[in-house]
Write a sequence for this structure.
């Protein structure tokens, strides 16, 4: 492990190239020149690699664009005891993530140009996964006044969201969509009606009843999405629903897309790989927002991924320290870390036969990049040399203690998974190499 | 009874005026511009007539302009400024009309914060009514004075491209100008953030732009609208600095308009919010001072035309059912 000289030519040969955006899945090679991809293709280096190039033998493993994680919480500035830009950067590259988009719910909130620039500058200095900030849609994510979206976008904010809070006031949401549309910007919503979610700790239903925990009805998602679809229809604003988790909610998006509304959505690995049973025994690491749902909802998420209703998968990385999780269920914070399990759990969709390997990878590469207008997630000549080399078949067991992330609150701890990151390359530099 | 060239008892808005009526008003106003510049500013055309300025909203320049217009024509002008407490909406507005009828006035100039309130009053009084601005509906004399200002500088209205920039949503000035400029054959562009543009405004016969740089490209006239402070605190737009950055008129954005493009503003200006002082005070480009001058002339023309149709005693007339 360690950064290498970023100058010069590096040939990644003997690879199974996967470029989901181009529909490419074939044996071939990639040539990087300094920070960018100089050549790529099945025929490359068939006659051998010219001398003077560094050669990386991929041994037939998958070489794909680095992952683009469109929803992470970085906790810096403000909660560095949970995560820092550096620890998150290390976790990201260990997970094959080369670009991540962070929520604005830090302290201070990312709602002014200076904080946007601070995050971008700090991340560049660390030199691990690239960090792109979302900025707050409303000042202080208080849901009262619009943020300076135009200037924040000029400073580098990719899109606008109140993070883990829904934009609850309909008039304000209308104006946020309208104002964002002035500049062609995207609003990202946490689709949950707050008044129905208030006090809830897990998905509403039989299990919550048996456990004696107050539940959040699945309708909380559908109600907010229904409202928002109508606001999208009258404003023409672009809208993205984060981590959809219910059958009814996904149906709302499906219908909106059929009507031609400018709407996209993502989900996170817990919502297609787990259901509410994971919180049995009061496991606070499975206390997520939105909550894990019934098995039928999980199946609906898989169906939504298969039919394209759900556009992307994000880790929804939410670091929480021991003090926030080793408490009674009601007192525990929401969220789980996910950067280091994003690839392996997403590959389950392929291993289980729901999607092809390239289709599954598209959800964590070109699809989120496309939604956010990021030039990332593709194996393209001239693009940044952000690559992940992984072994799709190699099995391992998730061990949260070994995470690079400062927080270990994974709902997937002890889960046997298949698919291991071998090497991560950012701007031509190898920033992660798995232990042999 | 009324002048054949202007067959209206009231001036409630531009929307119902045709091009020839607008031209009649502008031509008449031209004469008053000359009169106002001469030493003998006073005429006795309206001697014996009573004009009341009834303002339900604070105003200095419009009220002063009407007052001056009435006095220069020899009328007795009285200002009634309502703080909004003594006179209220609905029934009490009609009570006001009854009171005014008893005073036997000839022309009533009304400004009211509610759209449609001036029309309601016009249906209940015996005199001619001029709309001095109602809510977000119309401000006809402003559009007329803007048109006169443009016509004097550019020699015409037809064929010009006029950009109206800013808070169109709340603006009666914008609406009256859209109607007038469309009627006279100018093309109108609206520029502003989507939050400050009303629903389906494109159906009013305008081109809508959200990027000021694109919207100003090649225009002959730039009309800046005043933005109210209370609309800049995150409700419609996030902040003054963001608004000025994207929608404030400064030298750089002005450079995208035609080299001889002129700048207008209905006043009072928020310097550094919707307009940079540097361009507002540019004597070559800014017509803001001329607009004020044309205001008096246009209002004289309106008073002149509307009183031509009045009998010697206005109170002999029955209440009319419709105006302009």
């Amino acid at each position: 492990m360690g950064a290498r000289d970023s100058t010069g030519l590096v040939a990644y040969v003997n690879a199974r190239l996967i470029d989901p955006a181009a529909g490419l899945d074939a044996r071939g090679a990639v040539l990087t020149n300094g920070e960018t991809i100089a050549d790529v293709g099945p025929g490359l280096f068939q006659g051998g690699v010219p001398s003077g190039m560094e050669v990386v033998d991929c041994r037939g493993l998958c070489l794909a664009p680095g992952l683009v994680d469109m929803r992470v919480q970085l906790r810096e500035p403000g909660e560095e005891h949970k995560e820092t830009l550096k620890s998150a950067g290390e976790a990201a590259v260990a997970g094959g993530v080369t670009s991540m988009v962070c929520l604005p719910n830090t302290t201070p909130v990312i709602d002014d140009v200076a904080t946007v620039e601070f995050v971008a500058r700090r991340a560049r200095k660390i030199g691990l996964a690239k960090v792109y900030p979302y900025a707050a849609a409303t000042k202080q994510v208080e849901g009262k006044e619009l943020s300076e979206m135009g200037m924040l976008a000029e400073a580098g904010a990719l899109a606008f969201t109140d993070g883990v809070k829904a934009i609850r006031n309909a008039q304000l949401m209308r104006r946020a969509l309208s104002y964002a549309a002035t500049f062609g910007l995207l609003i990202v919503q946490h689709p949950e009606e707050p008044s129905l979610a208030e006090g809830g700790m897990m998905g509403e239903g039989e299990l919550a009843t048996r456990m004696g925990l107050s539940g959040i009805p699945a309708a909380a998602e559908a109600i907010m999405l229904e409202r928002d679809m109508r606001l999208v229809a009258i404003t023409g604003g672009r809208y993205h629903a984060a981590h959809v988790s219910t059958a009814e909610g996904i149906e709302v998006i499906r219908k909106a897309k059929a009507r031609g509304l400018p709407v996209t959505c993502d989900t996170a690995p817990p919502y297609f790989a787990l259901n509410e049973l994971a919180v049995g025994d009061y496991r606070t690491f499975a206390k997520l927002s939105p909550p894990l749902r019934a098995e039928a909802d999980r199946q609906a998420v898989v169906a939504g991924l298969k039919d394209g209703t759900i556009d992307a998968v994000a880790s929804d990385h939410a670091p929480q320290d021991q003090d926030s999780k080793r408490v009674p269920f009601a007192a525990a914070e929401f969220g789980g870390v996910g950067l280091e399990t994003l690839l392996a759990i997403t590959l389950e969709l392929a291993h289980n036969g729901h999607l092809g390997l390239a289709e599954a990878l598209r959800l964590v590469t070109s699809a989120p990049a496309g939604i956010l207008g990021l030039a990332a997630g593709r194996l393209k000549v001239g693009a940044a040399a952000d690559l992940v080399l992984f072994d799709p078949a190699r099995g391992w067991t998730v061990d949260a203690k070994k995470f690079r992330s400062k927080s270990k609150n994974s709902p997937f701890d002890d889960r046997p998974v298949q698919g291991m990151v071998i090497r991560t390359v950012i701007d031509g530099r190898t920033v992660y190499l798995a232990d042999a | 009874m009324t002048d054949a060239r202007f067959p209206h008892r009231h001036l409630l808005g531009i929307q119902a005026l045709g091009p020839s009526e607008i031209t009649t008003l502008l031509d008449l106003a031209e004469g008053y511009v000359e009169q106002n510049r001469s030493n003998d500013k006073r005429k006795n055309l309206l001697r014996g007539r009573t004009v009341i300025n009834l303002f339900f909203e604070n105003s200095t320049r419009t009220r002063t302009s009407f007052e001056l217009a009435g006095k220069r024509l020899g009328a007795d002008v009285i200002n009634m400024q309502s703080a909004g407490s003594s006179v209220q909406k609905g029934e009490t507005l009609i009570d006001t009309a009854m009171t005014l009828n008893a005073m036997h006035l000839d022309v009533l100039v009304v400004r009211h914060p509610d759209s449609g309130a001036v029309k309601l009053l016009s249906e209940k009084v015996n005199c001619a009514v001029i709309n001095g601005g109602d809510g977000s509906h119309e401000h006809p004399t402003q559009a007329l004075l803007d048109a006169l200002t443009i016509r004097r500088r550019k020699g015409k209205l037809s064929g010009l491209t006029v950009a109206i920039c800013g808070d169109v949503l709340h603006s009666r000035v914008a609406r009256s100008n859209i109607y007038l400029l469309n009627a006279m054959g100018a093309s109108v562009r609206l520029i502003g953030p989507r939050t400050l543009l009303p629903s389906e405004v494109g159906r009013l016969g305008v081109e809508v732009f959200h990027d000021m740089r694109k919207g100003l490209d090649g225009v002959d006239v730039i009309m800046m609208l005043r933005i109210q402070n209370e609309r800049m605190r995150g409700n419609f737009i996030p902040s003054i600095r963001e608004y000025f950055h994207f929608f404030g008129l400064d030298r750089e954005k002005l450079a995208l308009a035609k080299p001889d493009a002129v700048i207008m503003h209905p006043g009072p200006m928020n310097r550094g919010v919707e307009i940079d002082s540097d361009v507002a005070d540019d004597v070559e480009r800014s017509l803001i001072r001329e607009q004020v001058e044309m205001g008096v002339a246009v209002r004289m023309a309106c008073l002149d035309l509307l009183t031509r149709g009045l009998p010697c005693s206005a109170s002999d007339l029955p209440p009319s059912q419709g105006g302009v």
